[in-house]
Amino acid sequence: MVTLYRPGSSLWHLLATGRKALVLAALVLAISLLPQAWGRPTATIPAALCLACYAVPGIGLRVLLGQLVAMRWILIVTAVGQLIFLGPGPALVNTTRIAALISIAALLALTTRTTDLLDAMERGLSPLSRLRIDPQRVALLLAVTLNTVPALTRAAGQVREAQRARSARPSLRRFAVPFLILALKHADELGEALTARGVR
Amino acid sequence: MNGIVLEDASVRLGEVEALRDVSLTLDARTTAVLGDNGSGKSTLARLVGGLLPASSGTVEVLGLDPRRQAAELRRRVAIVFSNPDAQIVMPTVAEDVAFSLRGDRLRRAERAERVTAALERFGLSDLADRSSHDLSGGQKQLLALCGAFVRSPELVIADEPTAYLDARNARHVADHLLAEGAHRLLLVTHDLALARRCESAVYVAEGRVAAVGASAEVIAAYEESLRW
Known about the structure:
The structure holds two protein chains of two kinds. Chain A is mainly α. Chain A has two domains: 11-112, no CATH class; 127-196, no CATH class. Chain A has nine helices and no strands. The two termini of chain A are 23 Å apart. By secondary structure, chain B is α/β, with parallel strands linked by helices. Chain B has one domain: 3-Layer(aba) Sandwich (Rossmann fold), CATH 3.40.50.300. Chain B has eight helices and nine strands. In chain B, strand 6, helix 6 and strand 7 (184-188) form a beta-alpha-beta unit. The longest helix of chain B has 14 residues, at 108-121. The model of chain B has no long low-confidence stretch (mean pLDDT 91). Chain A binds chain B through residues 1-3, 5, 7, 113-115, 136, 143-144, 146-147, 150-151, 154, 186, 189-190, 192-200, and chain B through 46, 49, 51, 70-71, 74-75, 78-79, 81, 83, 85-92, 95, 98-100, 102-103, 129, 131-133, 147-148, 151. Chain B: This is ABC transporter ATP-binding protein. Chain B: Keywords: ATP-binding, Nucleotide-binding, Transport. Chain B: GO terms for molecular function: ATP binding; ATP hydrolysis activity; ATPase-coupled transmembrane transporter activity. Chain B: It comes from Brachybacterium endophyticum.
């Protein structure tokens, strides 16, 4: 699974999950609402906030650098698009803002175990149980969805390897059919495993 | 303690009758299930584990009716499959083990204590914070076992748990499954050396029980059937 969590004892790690989510959501919202008309501060304020969030002991700017590298394609596409249609000034401001937004939001996953996220989500969604929505199920759906990404990535790799082993030329149809079968088989097995582990 | 009792149990999967009129009483602590591919071994394991309903006949596991007392059965019976990848639900090793206890409404401290003890028992303590999907095949199967045993089940059903493992890891996993303890074991396997380590065995052929009894006798009957 794509686990972003980094064990540690920083301020962000120590903050309760619900409160942390609220603080980060408030920061993200504030950055999103910064008026474009302010010009350069619309870029410098998010950048400064982002640096401050990552500068706390136990996280560090190296982690921030890793996040920026991971989202480089999003940033490049954004910057190029803005550069073409809006010019260099807005391109710099908006790209900086997006980089800061994603990096700040990523702090939640970086400093919170999935189990704690699920617990917080269950608590947060508990009022929905009045509407007959089971918060446990919603949280489980999130966990299973996240878990399925690496499983399907591995399945895709297996199909490609099998095709190469048989010297088959790459084709979408030849890839899609066995991949779909593997995906359905995984879904079956996962369903059984969840039932076996007490999920009703 | 009641074991596993089947009376004229049949299982139909679509057009195929995967198990036919199976009557069995299994009281030994460890039982191996042998048979060719497609003979109905895994169907028998799934029937006992409550994953498949009987189309006719009766099934009783630890004194429970798997169909009517499914929740209670889930609490007392753990199942381990051959493909550990499909059994991993959470991103890190410790979290995946803890997932098995989510439904038990334990206090956080108690849950952590049980997870730590289980990880230690299966030699996974050093990997607690590692990504579950980055483990080797043997480590993943140990994680699957750990996730099953953390609930202290009375019965463990293992469907070819060593199928994807090398000899060293297979022995390691088998040692854990067969270790003396409070649990009973129903082990579906093609590995006759592993089956010999069980007290009793069932030989399934074409959906029927061909032999049942002490493992040495049943294995001899199965080996006899392999002669051309």
